Amino acid sequence: MPERPELDYQRDLLSDAIPGTVIAAVHVHDPIVVRQMVRTDLSEALVGRRVTTIVRRAHFMIIGLEGPAPHLALAIHPMLAGRFQLCAASDRVPKDTCFAITLDDGRQLRYRDRKRMGKVYIHEQAKRASIPGLATVGVDVLGLEFTFERFAALAQKRRDQVKVFLMDKSALDAFGNAYADETLFAAGIHPKARVRELSSEQLRALHAAAVSVLQEASDTVRARKPPLHEKVRDFLKVRNRKGQPCPTCGTPIRVAGVRGHDAFFCAVCQPDRSGRGFVRWSR
Fold first, then answer.
1. Do the beta carbons of residue 139 and residue 171 sit within 8 Å?
2. pLDDT class for 1, splitting at 50, 70, 90?
3. CA angle (106 as vertex; 103, 112 as ends), nearest 5
4. Where are the domains of the chain?
5. How far is it, in rounded angstroms, from Cα 36 to Cα 65?
6. Torsion angle of alpha carbons 173, 176, 179, 181, nearest 10°?
7. What's the CATH class of domain 4-130?
8. What would the mean pLDDT of 203-211 be, rounded to a whole number?
9. Which CATH class is domain 139-281?
10. Is 208 exposed, middle or buried (0-12, 13-18, 19+ CB in 10 A)?
11. Dist. CA 260–CA 104, nearest whole Å
């Protein structure tokens, strides 16, 4: 899944590349990903509209459009395997291409998704809140408003596991599986720990790790300058490294299940302090 560091980088690339262009054609290669929230024909609704802005909200990429009322936009959620590609419209269309818009300069923006789990919402901007996941988006973890006091107030209301809390987009903008694992590793907190059982020191460590992990990942992705359709994850310390030595202590990385999600962690650096035997449940 593309997460915030990748999506912010991709937003910047697209913001430099396509605002000011006009949609010349619309291509639906796999209707299963399309959620048409306007009543008119899709091509009639979009062709001729000018791209104005590219914004990331949670894990959505939102493309603002200028044209006759009502004001429309595309909101794209890549889910597990979605990715974007900007190329010449004449380039070969890969099999995983689900949706594309051809621009008036001869380029094409493609949404590719081999799992077909992502969604492309064509919607009126005034009705964006009706899109699942966009009605309420949490505090920006890299924004000035993400103070420890704000974070502690959010945590105080939670009774769930800490990884679930981190991945709640209505609370925090925004973590997915990978960077939730990396943040918990940096803070030394077990992914199954209950938020209400964390000490003040652990909450402070978690708040600091949330900011540093996302910022450092964002800086790394920007420095590496991958193509729009590729993601860089080889610098992660625990995610998808089951059985490999922990970079801090050398203990093999383990995996635990957290509400249907895999959580990668080090049992030594992120000890189970609950007494409930979490390590025995991992693999």
1. yes
2. confident
3. 65
4. 4-130, 139-281
5. 15
6. 120
7. alpha beta
8. 99
9. mainly alpha
10. middle
11. 44
